[in-house]
Design goal:
2 strands, two-stranded parallel sheet, mainly alpha
């Protein structure tokens, strides 16, 4: 499987979560922006912008056409970003130590910000060590 095909499949899986937007808009009077996907595969972005088929990607045509339609109607947005800014990039291949450390730091920040926002002050205070 090519990297473009695996990224395309991941994009299709993420796009299935669009039903959450419909649910939110149905329950509350909110206008939720289109789903935004960060992609680090330039070939995939180009395929979505300018559809063209060749013998190597012919088996992906139906998937690409479905996503291209959603992209052209602004149901989804796709932003090309460098691979080093992809948090989960270190989970997709053998990654250098620094990449894994960066992921650990980001996970800790996300976890600590969740706890600081959602837990009462008393629950955030550290417990004294038991003897």
């Amino acid at each position: 499987m090519s990297s473009m095909e695996s990224d395309l499949n991941a994009l299709l899986d993420g796009e299935e979560n669009q039903w959450l937007l419909f649910l939110i808009e149905e329950l509350w009077p909110l206008k939720v922006p289109a789903l935004l996907f960060h992609v680090d595969n330039r070939g995939l972005v180009e395929k979505l912008k300018k559809f063209g088929s060749n013998s190597k990607t012919k088996h992906l045509d139906i998937k690409i056409k479905a996503l291209r339609e959603k992209y052209s109607t602004n149901e989804i947005n796709i932003k090309l970003i460098p691979s080093e800014h992809m948090l989960a990039d270190s989970l997709t291949k053998a990654a250098p130590h620094q990449s894994v450390k960066k992921l650990q730091g980001k996970c800790f920040l996300a976890g600590s910000s969740f706890f600081s926002e959602h837990l009462p002050q008393k629950a955030r205070e550290p417990k004294p060590p038991s003897e």
